[in-house]
Design a protein that fits this description.
It is built from 11 helices and 7 strands. The protein is an alpha/beta fold. The protein has a single domain, classed as Rossmann fold. A 7-stranded mixed β-sheet has the order 3-2-1-4-5-7-6, sandwiched between helices. The longest helix is centred in the N-terminal third of the chain and has 16 residues. Bound molecules: S-adenosylmethionine (SAM). The site of S-adenosylmethionine (SAM) has 23 residues, from helix 1 and helix 4.
Length: 270
């Protein structure tokens, strides 16, 4: 990602969290429920799944969340690993980090650290975390191989990861040129096969797709109409109706939320 595109992505997410849009529908589509968190926290979700729901986190574990946003997954993880554990959230956007800090404080959690940084160059020591999570972030990186290399580097030898992310199949290539579609987690996404291969090439093992959710036309329409993704509704509304319909037809069934698990070693412990 060149610096300008990265700044635009930062600005979009910065504005999105400051504008306090209600993203509850995104949280519900991502399979969070009111048992996971209160309405206020759920309404700040920009995820595409609930990766923690697919993990066996233990008390005392050290957890890293890549692109931690307003802190929903960080907070859920912190409650599960307890006082003896530690959860580190890394994000590049100041406004997201500020909101996450407020949210962590209001939950009175003392086992969370929020660090500013890029997922391609993590501010994290080698072999230091038991779990890596990420929710709808790696698709945004044009350097996915670096991100997976970093995941490998920071995981303890027995460490594991669960990632929720968007992959696309048969996506019209020219649509990748539109920045609002990048911020919408679509234009930077690659196919599931390529995603898994990229992770494997960096040494990650045992990759498994544990869940897939294909976005249907009605869901894509709802996401656009609800105006929950930065810049998407204004981009879409400015298009002539026939192009809007064409876009919906092209993207329906082509955008998939996947949950992928794996580990640093072939046989993780626990
Ligand atoms: C789609 S939001 C997901 C936020 C959060 N994981 C959630 O589920 O609500 C993407 C987040 O990743 C951050 N981000 C995007 N690219 C990043 C990068 N290269 N390094 C660090 N953070 C990044 C953005 O600032 C934003 O907070």
């Amino acid at each position: 990602m060149n610096d300008l595109t990265r700044r635009k992505v930062q600005q979009s997410y910065g504005k999105a969290i400051i504008n306090k849009k209600d993203n509850t529908n995104i949280a519900v589509m991502s399979e969070y429920s009111s048992e996971d968190a209160d309405d206020e926290l759920l309404s700040q979700s920009f995820g595409c799944g609930n990766p923690l729901a697919f993990s066996k986190l233990k008390e005392g574990d050290v957890v890293l969340d890549l692109g931690s946003g307003a802190g929903l997954d960080v907070i859920l993880a912190a409650k599960r690993v307890g006082e003896k554990g530690l959860v580190i959230g890394v994000d590049m956007t100041d406004e997201m980090l500020a909101r996450a800090r407020e949210n962590v404080e209001s939950e009175k959690l003392t086992n969370v650290e929020l660090r500013k940084g890029y997922i391609e160059h993590l501010p994290i020591e080698d072999s230091s975390v038991d779990w890596v999570f990420s929710n709808c972030v790696i698709n945004l990186s044009p350097q996915k191989q670096l991100v997976f290399k970093e995941i490998y580097r920071v995981l303890k030898p027995e460490g594991q990861f669960v990632i929720s992310d968007i992959v696309v199949e048969k996506f019209p290539p020219f649509l990748r040129l539109f920045r609002p579609l990048l911020t919408a987690c679509v234009a930077g996404a690659i196919s599931e096969e390529k995603y898994i291969k990229t992770a494997q090439e960096q040494g990650l093992q045992g990759l498994k797709v544990i869940n897939r959710m294909i976005y249907e036309k009605s869901q894509i329409k709802q996401i656009i109409e609800d105006d929950e993704i930065p810049g998407l509704k204004s981009f879409f509304s400015a298009l002539p109706r026939f192009i809007q319909n064409w876009l919906l037809r092209q993207t329906a069934g082509a955008i998939v939320s996947v949950k992928i698990s794996g580990s640093r070693q072939a046989t993780p412990v626990g």
